[in-house]
Each structure stands twice: as structure tokens, then as C-alpha cells.
Design brief:
The complex is a heterodimer of chains A (133) and B (330). Chain A is of the alpha/beta class. Chain A contains five helices and five strands; from the N terminus they run βαβαβαβαβα. The chains are: A alpha/beta (133), B alpha/beta (330).
Chain lengths: 133, 330
Amino acid sequence: MTENRKIKVLVCKPGLDGHDRGAKVIARALRDAGMEVIYTGLHQTPDMIVQTVLQEDPDAVVLSMLSGAHKALCPVIMEKLKKNEIDDVLVSVGGIIPDEDKPFLEEHGLKGFYGPGTELKTIVEFVKNNLKR
Amino acid sequence: MDYSDLIEKLLNGNSRAVARLITLVENDIEAAENIINAIYSHTGKAYILGITGAPGSGKSTFISNLTKIFAKEGKKIGIICVDPTSPITGGAILGDRIRMKENFSLKDVFIRSMANRGQLGGLARATEDAVKILDAYGCDIIIVETVGVGQSEVDIFKSAQTVIVLLVPGLGDDIQAIKAGIMEITDIFVVNKMDLAGADKKIADVMQMLELRMNYKYEYDNLEVNNLLKSKWSPEIIKVNSVTGENFEKVSELINKHREFLKESGVLVNYQKNRIKSETLQILKHKITQKVEGLINSNPTIDEYIRLVMDKSLDPYSMANLIIKLLGIE
């Protein structure tokens, strides 16, 4: 490489969740860690998210969910990514994720599960250390 | 590395290949060289539209509205949105897609965000290359959104056929309107947020500036400049409301009018020549800078020169001339 590659991250709010303070704080923290962060705003459907991944080619996707819909939406997103042959992108979900739901989400290929009170450094390190390419 | 597989997919209209190739040209200038070399003969069909204006003037929302109209006409649209890179950490927040939500689901709209990675002038180094990739992908129209600009970020005027500058009421008076820079070379002025107080005053300021220019009878010594002025498009001005979509049909008509003008007046050929010239210059600057930096950091003679400059027996201009001799590009 003749230039340094930048880590590109997509931060998303899937579904009908209107609280994005957390997502904005995460976006800012990743920015300050030298990453290029795309934030797409509220109310993203799985199709919108997959379309964005297709076009923006990020290294990682960070889903922020506080609404309790993670078990319904995350598997759909993962399935649609797979259908589009996207298998080299780290997909993580955080927000309010109860412990008992984590194995289910892990089975679908999701990682992370960071909730309120997590140090920003932890999330930055998590993204850096779990990239698939 | 071999990119022929990706390039074949690109030419067959695969959008994932577009995304991958843009990442490559962004990250690696050698990759960019190979990719552009391979696709260049497939470019030149798309119409390139530049949108620029101050931060918060409504560029992304404006593009979203315009895209809806183009999409209705059945056009395939590429959008590149440039946002600034932090000079401190190298990171960036790319937030232009938020305003374009309504277009996410449209099949023939490809939106790509791009950080400028420290490049001055309103665009990223890789923007031109990304435009070519979208062109080869088969886009009819490519819309390039610059970073939020001030007065002199004019790179977009070199890469786009039609440039729209967004103005908003209450930002700057008639003196701002007669300053040099962006205001001089705009094709279409759009006063966004027309529902706000001061929109008509803004239009009056720009019209006054334009009238002054039209009445300027001075003959330049330079024949080329005179010809250019005579064949010059007289810039249009229009006000819009990006929330309600008011007047957007008219914006689209003005773009078509300018496009026709470029073709009929022969200005398009000039534009193409200038574009190739300025683009090549850009590449040369990059390559020569790399060479010079390599030389300065490795050649022991340079240390000798630096010592001489420190002793005041040589000055920086003379040292630069000596380095040019060393490079053999006098």
C-alpha cells in the first residue's frame, strides 16, 4: 500500500428506535480514534442498512439498539448481508442487549453487545481488534 | 495485485464492485493508477454536476430532492459526498447520507461518502477517480457534493460540467457577493431555504453582482479571455425550498439549459481540455512531490545544502534551484 488504509465504520440505528445520543457518542469516539465514520441517522430498515454497506464498503458495522427489537432485526440484517455475499465485514450490536439474548445473536454472527457505562476505549479497541480484513 | 475481475464486474453493472474499487482508489494511489488505466476508455458518458456551498447551506438535502427528479426520469445516478477529515486525528464523520434517506431504496442510485483526507480545495484526492468509476459503471448523472466551503475552494469547477452554488438568506451581504472566488465561476445560483426572511435580498445581491459583470465592456489583451467572456453563459439564479420541494423542477430545467449551452457553444470542448490539463497537473504535482520528498530525506547532498543555508551562504530559493538540478527536471 502506498497510503495508509483508513478503518471505515458504519454506525446505524435500525428500526423504530429514536434515541441516538449513544450512537453519536460512539461515532465521535471512533472518529477521534482516526476512523472514518458514516452515520446514517434514525429509523433504518434492514434493506437500507445492507444497501449502505454495499455502497460504502465499510470494514465494520456498529448497530445501536435500545428498543428491544434486536432479536427481530439483527438476524434479518445478517441474512441480507449474506445474500449479498458480504462476509468480510465485522457486524456488532450494542445498546440495551439483555445477557440471555447474547448467545442467540452470537449464533447469527453478531459481536460486541456493549451497553451503557462501557468505556469508549473498550469499544474502539473492540473494533480495531475484530476486523475481518 | 490484479483488478481485472473487479473491473469486469464493474463494467457489467455490479454495485459491490463499484464500492470495492472506490475503496481501492481511496487507499492506494498505485491501485488507482492501474484501475483508471483499465477503465478510462469506458468513461466520458456521464454528466457531472457539482454542488457546493457553505456548511449547513443544505447541499445534501438539495441533492436528495434533485435525485428524486432525475430518478423519475429513469436516470441512473451516482452521488459522491465529501466531508472533512480531522487535521488532528485523521478521523472523519461522514453524515451526508442522513439527508438522503428517501433515496436509499432506489435501485439506480449509488451514494458514496468520502473523507477529504486533508486535501484542500473542497474535494478528496480520490474524488475524480471515484467519478470515473461511477461513469464506467454506467451512471447517466454523477452528482459531486463538496465539503462545506468558504470562498476559495474551487476544485469542483475543474471537475464538474455544471456547478451549482447554494446560498442561504442571512449569510453575507452585497460585499460578499462581489468578492473573488466561488461567486465568479458559478453556473447556477440557488438560494436555499427560500421561506426564511432575507431570501429576496440574497437574490438581489447576486443579481446586482451578475449585472455588473454583464455590463463590463473592458477588452482584455488576451484573445482567449475575450472569446471566453463573449461566449459566456449568463448565470441563472433561483430560490428553492428543500423541505417542500418547491421549484426543484425548475432547477432541473436550468441544469438542462446549461447542458445544452455547453454543447452548442463549444465550451464543452474547452472544458474537457482544461479538465484533462488540470487533472494531469494534479497527478504530476503528486508524483513530483513524492520524488522530491524521497530525495530530500535520503540524499546526503541535501544535508550539505541545509548547512549552507544555515550559514547564510545559500538562501532557500537557490537551494530549491540546486534540488531541481539534482532531479534533472530543469
